[in-house]
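Summary of Year 1 activities. Much of the first year was spent building the evaluation harness for sequence design. The harness presents a backbone, in tokenized form, and records the residue chosen at every position. We chose the following record to illustrate the format because it has been used consistently in internal testing since the harness was completed.
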């Protein structure tokens, strides 16, 4: 129950509950309509993981700040997700 209550009370959970997958655009600059459902879920999970882990949060910021193409950004974020779970 502790983990569930943490997720329900997280900052990103509040954003998700009001914005839905649009939060991916707000945080990552990714249009959720251009990626698969499974990728959306992984990127949302990555956001939640980043709240507990400053290293993940820093890596996300580096990916966002880098001058990558849109698709490269998606690939790197999904790769970070794989490393983090």
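For this record, the design step produced the sequence shown next.
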């Amino acid at each position: 129950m502790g983990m569930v209550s943490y997720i329900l009370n997280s900052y990103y959970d509040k954003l998700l509950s009001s914005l839905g997958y649009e939060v991916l655009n707000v945080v990552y600059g990714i249009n959720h309509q251009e990626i698969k459902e499974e990728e959306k879920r992984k990127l949302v999970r990555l956001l939640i993981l980043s709240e507990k882990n400053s290293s993940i949060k820093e890596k996300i910021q580096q990916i966002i700040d880098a001058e990558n193409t849109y698709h490269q950004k998606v690939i790197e974020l999904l790769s970070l997700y794989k490393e983090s779970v």
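The CA atoms of residues 7 and 60 lie 19 Å apart. Quantitative recovery figures across the full test set are reported in Table 2.
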